[in-house]
Amino acid sequence: MPETKIGYFPDVGASYFMSRLDGELGTYLALTGETLKGRHVFESGFATHYVPSRRIPILLDRLSALENAHATVINSTVEEFTAERLPEEPPLAFVSDVRDALDYAFRHNKVENIIADLESLKGHASPAIAQWAEQVLASLHLRSPTSLKVALKAIRLGKSMTLLEALEMELKIATAYCVSNSPMMIVSVPEDNTREYQNLATPDFATGVRAVLGKEKQKRDTLLPWSPSKLEEVSDEIVSRFFAPTSSYLSSAPSLLIPEHPKSDATHKPMKYALPTEDEIGTMVRGSHSAGGGTGVSLDELVSSFEGIRNGKVGVKEKVLEVARRKCEVKDNGGDGNFIWWKHQLNRP
C-alpha cells in the first residue's frame, strides 16, 4: 500500500490489520509504503497461507469439490498445497538486529521521534542497521509529511478498534482527503495549485495522484511539492481535520453499510489459521497460553508446542525460532534444565 507516496493514508481496513502485526512492523509499512511480495506477505502476518502459483489451479479444483466447506476443512485443504521455502526465494528482510531496530525506532506516537531514532541509528556499529536506517530515512523524506502523521495516528487508534470502527474512521479520513468542506463540492485533481485546494483538509492527495499516477508522472524518488513540506509545519490542528468529531472536513462523510459478520471481532478470527504471532508465542513462554502447562519451556518444547497447535503448518518452526532469538533469553533453572525467558523490555539495539 504505497499510500503515503501519493499523499494519502493506508485505508480499506489497514488501520485494523496493520496495527495488529507483530511489534511495529505495521507502523513501518504504513509510513514507508514498502512493498512485500509472495511468501513475505505470509511470513509478515498478512496472509494465512502461501501457495506457489503453479499449484493454484489444482487447489481451486479441490476447493470447489468440497462438500463440507467449514473453515477448518478449507484451512487443511489449502495447507496441503503449501510448500517449504525454495533455495532461490530470498529470506524475509526484517529479522534479527534489523528487526530490533525497526521495533525500537517505530515505537513512538510522534513521527518526529521516529525520525530522531532513525537518525541516531545511522551511526550504529552494525553496518546492516546503519544502512537500513539510512534507507528508511531517505524513503520517509519523500513522503507527504501530513500523510505520515495521519497514517501514524490512524494506526495507533486502530489497534483498539473493532474492524467496523476502523473502517468507519478510515471512511471519514478519506472524506477529508477527497471532499471539500464546502457543501456538496467534490474536488477533482486540478492541473496546478488552484483555489480548488483551499477547501481540502490537505492538497497532498491531489498532488500525489497527479505526480505519481497521472499524466504528469514524475521520476521515482522525486520529492513532490507537499503542503506543508516539513513535518514541523504539520500542526495538531491540521491532523485534527482528519479525526476530530467536530471537523468540518468530516461533515459530509457518508454512513458505512457493511454485512453483519465483520461487526463482531469475537466471531471473525481468520488469522487463527496463520502463523503464530509474537504475542501468542510470548504467552506460551510466560506460561499463560491456553495450550501451555503453566511452567517454563525449553526452546525445543516451544517449537514442538506450536507445531502441534498448528498441525505441522509450514513456516511455524522458522517463525517461532526467529521470534525466540529476538525476544527470549536462556536461563539455567537451577538444575532443572535450560528454560527460555521472555524479555519484557525493548532496548536500543
From TrEMBL:
A Gene Ontology cellular-component term: mitochondrion
Domain Enoyl-CoA hydratase/isomerase: 1-243
Entry EC no(s): 3.1.2.4
SUPFAM superfamilies linked: ClpP/crotonase
Substrates-to-products reaction catalysed: 3-hydroxy-2-methylpropanoyl-CoA + H2O = 3-hydroxy-2-methylpropanoate + CoA + H(+)
Keyword Transport appears in the UniProt entry: no
Key word Cell wall biogenesis/degradation present: no
Gene3D superfamilies assigned to the protein according to its UniProt record, in alphabetical order: 2-enoyl-CoA Hydratase, Chain A, domain 1 (3.90.226.10)
GO MF annotations, alphabetized: 3-hydroxyisobutyryl-CoA hydrolase activity
Superkingdom of the organism of origin: Eukaryota
InterPro entries reported in the protein's UniProt record: ClpP/crotonase-like_dom_sf, ECH_dom, HIBYL-CoA-H
Any single biological process term in GO: L-valine catabolic process
Keywords tagged on the record: Hydrolase
Protein name, per record: 3-hydroxyisobutyryl-CoA hydrolase
Protein source organism: Asterophora parasitica
Lineage: Eukaryota, Fungi, Dikarya, Basidiomycota, Agaricomycotina
